[in-house]
Amino acid sequence: MTADTILYGVGDMMPSGTQPDIHFENMKNLLSDKNALSFGQLEGVISNELVPSNASPSHCACDITLATAMKRAGFDIVSFAGNHSLDFGPKSFLESIERIWEAGLVPVGVGKDEGEARTIRYIEKNGVRFAFLAYSSILPHGSWATKKRPGCNPARGLNAYEPDEPDQPGTHINVYTFPHPHDLKNMLEDIKTARANADIVVMSIHWGIHVARAVLADYQRYYAHFAIDAGVDIILGHHAHTLKPVEVYKGKAIIYSLGNAALGNADKTDDLELPPDAHLRKRGIFRCMTDPVVPGRDWHMGWYQSTIAKCVIRDRKIQSVSLIPTFMPEKPPTILPKPGSNEFDSVINTLREITAEERLDTVYELSGNEILLPQTIADC
């Protein structure tokens, strides 16, 4: 009998320090299993040349050894499509991609031009052919790839504004968001190609409203549903730096945010380029953070809670999807808490609460040390 193939997916990774291996100590056994194919999102650049870009509002870099550390941890494929990938300009961006390749990892969602950024990455594992596509919706101006410019594979969102009371200046305004038509067209074309050439189609996307509890932007649901209708089997979301609800649409899991897999010095705000209003430190820096700061730490609880997505593939189809809770303590490594612990229970409780807040009907069931999504079980 052929063993099941396992796809693992983790969220944002930007460990600090010169020994990045330590951050992955507790994940390594899972990610490096002989039957596993493991995906992660790289948040910061890996480069020796760190000249800040004027186009970027912030500047995030990782230790030069991170790519090789990720390979040692068991990762196979990495999305570098995100809002920090061009923090230090195109030269560092391209160097980071080169270092990912040199480490034996496969980069996706980025490239020297639009064609390369849109390239579908195919990987075979245990006779199962996977297609990976990666996109970013969070893009400082000019960081999406064009025919003549390096950058990320874009899935931009467009805003529309409607005042509740048009005759009352300064009153509440509703914000509606939609997919960029050009990006959506490209996405659907690429998904169609991937579907025709692979058993399992995986879409990674950097999107959403960062550090805000629960809330999903309209454009996320549009992109997600269009993508699954076109042939995607699972969506792995990141960027929000907090857990977001999971939606099961037509039996397919849309994980809107996996959370922070590994962020070194997660409680250190002194090195960040803060806005002049210093009081924002106490609110977790970002104005949109809606949950209170954890006592004794600098961020809200959602910053520290995260998950590893686990997809069981059998007969070249996803048999089931579950989430493995993880938690970032004050010092690395990220831990995989046991069921019944405060950290484990906080993750499943948060998922249930935020899912209800967004009026989704996703079911979460405890199954050993995993949170099973029973609505994804094949032939159920």
Can you offer a commentary on this structure?
This protein is of the alpha/beta class. It has a single domain (5-376), classed as Purple Acid Phosphatase, chain A, domain 2 (4-Layer Sandwich). The chain has helices spanning 28-31, 66-73, 89-102, 114-117, 181-197, 218-230, 301-304, 342-357; strands at 5-14, 36-42, 77-79, 106-108, 110-111, 121-125, 128-136, 151-152, 157-163, 173-179, 200-206, 234-238, 246-249, 252-255, 260-263, 305-314, 317-327, 365-367, 370-373. The strands form 4 sheets. Strands 1, 2, 3, 4, 15, 16, 17, 18 and 19 form a 9-stranded mixed β-sheet that branches. Strands 6-7-11-12-14-13 form a 6-stranded mixed β-sheet. Mean pLDDT is 92; it is low at 269-285.
Task: List the defining traits of the structure above.
8 helices, alpha/beta, 380 residues, Purple Acid Phosphatase, chain A, domain 2, nine-stranded mixed β-sheet, six-stranded mixed β-sheet, single chain
